[in-house]
Amino acid sequence: MGLRRVRMVGALVLLVALVALMSACRGRTNVANANAQGEQLYQANCAGCHGIDAAGGISVGGVRSGNLRARSLDALYFNDTHLISRSILDGKDEEGKDLDAAMPRWRGKLSEAAVTEIINYLRRLR
């Protein structure tokens, strides 16, 4: 009976480990999918002005596009995703003033969820 019990405990440990591994892999897949979605949204809607690498510096409407990879960008917007989202959707800076006219106002064209995906993608680039 002792050997049988050891085998059952071993099988149970193996089953628990397998479930944990599958759970961890599922989490990585979800993160990978979110990364891919944010990148696709960025490339389709933002890269034309801010560059495929988000480094900006492209002349658009008489102004240079911002570097969206800059670590100081989050600090400028008080690390507030809502304020960053507002800049994309409504063209408002951290103080609520209008950004340059060259910055498109994306409200009605991009959902808030899509903008959040873009912001998360950009944060992962830093």
Question: What's the layout of helices and strands?
Answer:
Blueprint: H1 2-45, H2 47-50, E1 59-60, E2 63-64, H3 72-76, H4 81-90, H5 112-125
Antiparallel strand pairs: 1-2
Helix pairs in contact: 1-5, 4-5
Written overview of the protein:
It is a single chain. Helix content is 61%, strand content 3%. The protein has 126 residues and is mainly α. The chain has a single domain (2-125), classed as Cytochrome Bc1 Complex, Chain D, domain 2. Strands 1-2 form a two-stranded antiparallel sheet. β1 and β2 form a beta hairpin. α1 (2-45) packs across α5 (112-125) and α4 crosses α5 (112-125). The longest helix has 44 residues, at 2-45. It starts with a helix and ends with a helix. The model is unreliable at 8-25 (pLDDT under 50).
Give a quick rundown of the structure.
61% of the residues lie in helices and 3% in strands. It has 126 residues and is mainly alpha-helical. It is elongated, with a radius of gyration of 22 Å.
